[in-house]
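To close the section, here is one more complete example, presented without commentary so you can practise reading it yourself. The ligand is C2E.
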Amino acid sequence: MKPIKHILRPITTFSDKQRMLILLACSIVLISTMFCFLAYSFYSINKESRQRLNALIDIIDEDLAIQMSSADSLPIDKSLAVIKADPSIKHAFILNAKGQVIAYYNQNTEETPHTMQQSLDSLRSRIRQQFVQVSPGVESPISRNGTRLGTVLIEQNEQIIIKKILDTTGISAIILLFALGLSYLLAGRFQRVVTEPVTTMATIMREVSYTKDYSKRVPSFNTDEISQLANSFNEMLSEIEHRDEDLLDRQNQLHHMANFDSLTGLPNRALFNDRLEQAIRRTNRTGEKLALLFIDLDNFKMVNDTYGHRTGDQVLLETTARLASITRAGDTLARLGGDEFTIILQDTKTEETARLVACKHLKNLYHHFQIGNRELFVSASIGVALYPEHGATAEDLIKNADAAMYQAKEKGKNSVELFSETINSKLSEKMLLSNDLHKALQQGEFELHYQPRINLTRNSWASAEALLRWNHPRLGRVPPDRFLPLAEKNGTIIPIGEWVIREACRQLHQWHCQGFHLPRISVNVSPLQLHRQDLVGILKDALSSSNLCAQAIELEIVESALVEDSGHSINLLKELQSMGVKISIDDFGTGYSSLSYLRTLPIDTLKIDRSFMINAHVSEDDRRIIAAICAMALSLGLEVVTEGVECVEQEQILLDHCCHEAQGYYYDRPMAADELTQRFLSSQILLEEMPYRLNTV
Ligand code: C2E
Ligand code: MG
Ligand code: MG
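Output:
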């Protein structure tokens, strides 16, 4: 049973409103029905009373007619006795033909003299009045043989009728109350049939919004409107669920993209930094050491450029697999980008342990890589830095491991280098040099030296290679191998390269003016110049301002620069070649150019790298290589130049294989422009057929 408080609470909920509506509808129907019933009951009671009175009159009517026609009063009393026997009769009047009351019955008093004096009309009006109120009364004429003898008036006791009406009303009221009570209970039940699905739905909605569990569903009840609503709600939940799954997927993807390398699936730089910081914190707690290995593949760029990025990617995947195969479970292997990998070695006790692990990785990488049907050899250089000795922060540790890796590369690659302060000072020296490069050009610290190139068949000077020298105010002469990589890195090679072209042209022009008709000058061009500089514009300008023709200049480009960006570079070289500028491939043999690829390049000359010449006079293998390159170049219609010729035996090899030109210390070392001018002036040699062995002439 619900407490009254609960029943009387304010109507706020949908189910309460619904229940009240059902109840209101029931009440209206019940009350209307009750009123109709009562009206009908009232009417029936009256009708029944009147029928009873008429029936009574019918009983006494005959007797009264006989008695009144004989004018005997006794029998009238007898007739009245019949009326008196009926307890529901209140009054009865018998009137003669003149309308005078000749007999009278009153339930409460025997006879009232004044009533006897009343006329028929007054009695009639009294009866009508009674009738209108509650108690019905009837009037009936007493006739015999068509003659009216008098009138009988009977009036019923209204108390009895009122009692009947009250009884009926009372019972009706009880039934009404019962019906209303029942309606209230049934309304609750019926309303539940309707609201239960709605309530269930609302509960599930609440749960969904609280728990965010969109896999919940509202049960489908049948096919009515609420079920349709439930189905729509379920559909909406499904959509949200799918959308959420989608969002989650994307979130995971984003998280994965933000933290993992897409090619190898290894942690990327961001996640690696985070892991390294965590590892440092852990090491601080435990008091142990950790080591960081910085791994960089040697010549990976070359592999990428030569065989394409697909092969490069395969090499990176194979490298990842090899590194992962011997990385301990607790350690972190990451790819920082390109061919740079790092490994955090947790709990490394000594430098020696770290070095041993690094050597193990190095050995593991040094086996050939089988990529498709190609066999490639890719070594690596590894730098090692330990925490806390080699860096107090993650940033320092990475920087120092990186520096150690560079040192390993400089030492000849495929090696492991432990960080030391010497490396650090070398690095800071590099940084200083790199900074100084920015102002070196304005301060006129650069100078060009020239090394003659000899035409072997004509025994004359064919050209001179312009070689850059940096006269550093503090460090003195800095060799190009030391500063050119830095200039490439910081971009200063672009203005420096332009200066070299203009200066070389100016110098050649000056020599021409002095009567020294050197046919050509060779200028080295860095890959960056090919990509980022208007080489054609600069050359045209330099040549025209020096009054030189395009044939007076030759550009030396390293092999890798052409393999790297074939499209752009090749178009540029074609344009230069069509101008008349000679193009030669410098350090040929150290790159990966294939013969078929060479044929497509717009080049005039192959310049064999000096590494093949160093031992050519003692090594059969090197001789074979030189022979093969010369034969190949001849068959392709290219000229061959060899650099690094240091002795007569080497020269003989070149002559044997029809090499066109040679350059090296055997003939001349690179020298300042003035020195070369002096050599020319002092030798007094004809310009066209100038013998190269000036000192022997
Ligand atoms: P490279 O173009 O191959 O230049 C030849 C290098 O070999 C020069 O070194 C030269 O001094 C050296 N050399 C010549 N003959 C002999 C020899 O018989 N024996 C030995 N051991 N070495 C010999 P250098 O002048 O130190 O130049 C090194 C590299 O720097 C050059 O190699 C070239 O790649 C680059 N380089 C020099 N000047 C420039 C420049 O102006 N621009 C660019 N982009 N690179 C330059
Ligand atoms: Mg060169
Ligand atoms: Mg060279």
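Once you have examined the tokens, check your reading against these statements. Residues 260-419 form a domain with the Alpha-Beta Plaits fold (CATH 3.30.70.270). The radius of gyration is 62 Å.
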